[in-house]
Specification:
The structure is a homodimer.
Chain A lengths: L2 E8 L3 H13 L5 E6 L3 H7 L5 H9 L2 E6 L4 H11 L2 E9 L12 E7 L3 E9 L4 E9 H16 L12 E5 L7 H16 L3 E5 H10 L6 E4 L1 H15 L6 E6 L3 E5 L16 H13 L3 H17 L12 H10 L2
Parallel strand pairs in A: 1-2, 1-3, 3-12, 5-10, 8-9, 8-10
Antiparallel strand pairs in A: 4-5, 4-11, 6-7, 11-12
Helix pairs in contact in A: 1-9, 1-11, 3-4, 5-6, 7-8, 9-10, 10-11
Bound molecules: 3-isopropylmalic acid (2 copies).
One 3-isopropylmalic acid sits at the interface of chains B and A.
Protein name (chains A, B): Isocitrate dehydrogenase
GO molecular function (chains A, B): isocitrate dehydrogenase (NAD+) activity
Enzyme class (chains A, B): oxidoreductase
């Protein structure tokens, strides 16, 4: 059975790291049909649309999508694409690797970020010359669906290594957003209780203090949308930057995979971007499509290269994207 | 002229660190009239009200208030108290001290957090069994007032040492909250431009990655309410925890000073809490009331003790609150 995977390079280093990830996928004994599509600043400039309807439809109909990055149009591209694949959870692992300089080398966490609502539901109004409002949305149904996913994730041992049966932490701000985050917190904890999964909680501000002080106390963290955005990016800072972080936007019958980093305009076009985050996103794609062993193979190859292979400039090396990719391919 | 200062110890270690800070204030050649008032879990249990009207009125009428911490009732106490003193900005310095273990010893930043609106304006509705909403509020007037304060702050050289004329960074999420954070961002940058103050900007998620990677690139950071809450707590994690961080809620003609930490129920009542954050809050109170020299004296004394004096358990020492306080008094 062949998997139809839509490939959207986007802008900047997306055009360099996505091809690297596709090369890795092509090297495996898995049958893919890759369909290229456009999104981002360049296509916006050319056509007036950052996300052409054709790309949206392709992503919606595919088995999975691999996306790179978009520049100024990032929000116009990624938010509708998450919707196209009907994604309700954004899975964001942040792991420090041996051999890579990290502010906190003990960091090994996975954020499960609600991916449809919160402030991202985005009903904004300009009520007067002075006043604007945004209506933040939280539903029990989305909160419970995220929590069910989190419970399965933990039960299946997909959390950080050595953390498989330790449950999860829900991070929220229910002491201020009592009704909305209160609902989120209550539903997530109720689902955990029903399923017999351990769950504890942290206020998101306290979590932001504690994570840098001692990341080893956390494993899987379940968050509302914006909290997940900011707290997972904080974790990225602790493991040495965005160059290493993959992510999965998982839906009911579809999913989209993307490196957490952006287009890196300062180095775009030079062939020196770090392809690690894109390749690890491809590993998540493999696992999502049922090729768990191949996903693990890719991860192992990447870890090997990170620990004693060539490295790009962001990690203090001088290697090119191609050299790092070749080193990963060598180890498969 | 005597300054009327309302003193609210609150709960837990608030009852230990606030008296320490008052002792320090009493040791200075400044004339204070201290008025004690109650707030927090204990008074809620006794009277049904976490913040008695009397306390609110006292804070509203005083020259300044020194607050400790409240337990479960924290939000019910601190949010109305900020309103009582008519505070529009929460000033939160986060500085690593020589001799204190810090994840990022180069950290020396000051957050200026909007203190009246954002999600804290808190219009929440339970629209159905499934759905709750929160209306986030952003006004041009509050954004501009914060920005004016930030410009003066920078112009007066009150930012981190060596950073006095470097302007400020505004952190926001205007790529998603286009109308609300868009308004905030636009007004803050416009005021900076009008006043000839340098201002740059970061998306708050990118900021959360970059701060741990390289705090030395930031000085004064201007944020919406919740962003300021979370990002300043992140900075607390980088300097070694909440035990060191003071804060000021500044209004037009009144202000409230509080350590950023909470009630620390695990060590409350043992006399071993770190009084540093409360004493540094007292230093901010001195400066606010015009006693800049005395404020600096207190800071210097605290820094001296942190570098080679007795230290409490949270900093790896074995000293009591009283011993640390006595060491600070010795150096005044
Ligand atoms: C580009 C932006 C809309 C997006 C988000 O906020 O979700 C990005 O920060 C991310 O986390 O993928
Ligand atoms: C207790 C809580 C309401 C408060 C806030 O969110 O402002 C606290 O976290 C703080 O930052 O002072």
């Amino acid at each position: 059975m062949s998997h139809e995977v839509v490939v959207i390079e986007g802008d900047g280093i997306g055009r360099e790291v996505v091809p690297a990830a596709v090369e890795v996928l092509e090297a495996l004994p898995v049958d893919f049909e890759f369909v290229k599509a456009e999104a981002g600043d360049a296509v916006q400039e050319a056509t007036g649309e950052a996300l052409p309807a054709e790309t949206y439809d392709l992503a919606a109909d595919a088995d999975a999508t691999l996306f790179g990055a978009a520049g100024e149009t990032a929000a116009d591209v990624i938010l509708p694409l998450r919707e196209a694949v009907d994604s309700f959870v954004n899975v964001r692992p942040a792991k420090a690797y041996p051999g890579v300089d990290a502010v906190r080398p003990e960091t090994d966490v996975v954020f499960l970020r609600e991916n449809t609502e919160g402030v991202y539901a985005g009903h904004e109004d300009r009520l007067s010359d002075d006043l604007s409002t945004l209506t933040r949305v939280v539903t029990s149904s989305a909160s419970r669906e995220l929590a069910e996913f989190a419970c399965e994730f933990v039960e299946d041992g997909r959390g950080p290594a050595g953390d498989s049966d330790e449950g999860f932490t829900v991070a929220h701000k229910a002491n201020v957003m009592r009704e909305t985050d209160g609902r989120f917190r209550e539903e997530v904890l109720a689902v955990a209780e029903e399923r017999g999964v351990d769950a504890d909680e942290e206020l998101m501000d306290a979590f932001a203090t504690k994570l840098p002080l001692d990341p080893s106390q956390y494993g899987v963290i379940v968050c509302p949308n914006l909290a997940g955005d900011v707290l997972s990016d904080l974790a990225a800072g602790l493991v040495g930057g965005l160059g290493l972080l993959p992510s999965a936007n998982v839906g009911h019958d579809n999913a989209l995979f993307e490196p957490v980093h952006g287009t890196a305009p300062d180095i775009a076009g030079e062939g020196i971007a770090n392809p690690t985050a894109a390749i690890l996103s491809a590993a998540m794609l493999l696992e999502y499509l049922g090729h768990v062993e191949e996903g693990q193979q890719v991860r192992d190859a990447v870890e090997g290269v990170l620990s004693d292979g060539p490295r790009t400039g962001d990690l203090g090396g001088g290697a090119t994207t191609d050299e790092v990719t070749a080193a990963v391919l060598d180890r498969l």
